[in-house]
Design brief:
The protein is α+β, with helices and mostly antiparallel strands. The protein contains 3 helices and 4 strands.
Amino acid sequence: RNGMSGDSRENAVKIPDRYIAVDLETTGLDAKRDRIIEIGAVRVENGQKTASFHTMINPRRALEERIVRLTGISDEMVENAPDIGDKIGEFLDFCGQLFLVIMLFLITAF
């Protein structure tokens, strides 16, 4: 039994009643080099979606073909989008003091 308890609930993570689920699309996985190109977020309270936030972000550079294929986001979709500095305050206001749940999906193509 791998030394694990028979009750898997003992090790379960407790998700708060109120949180923000966040999904970011980026130009890659290097935090120093790559940039955010899309922010999507949903406020969840007592298991119900109560609000959402979405914006495209202009990375100020051309997207690599592998990122276009992976995300479905093209240069045309972000060329007139705001800079991250113009939207981050709005995003943080949306989040408030709630716990953030970050969606992480890694593809071996990187």
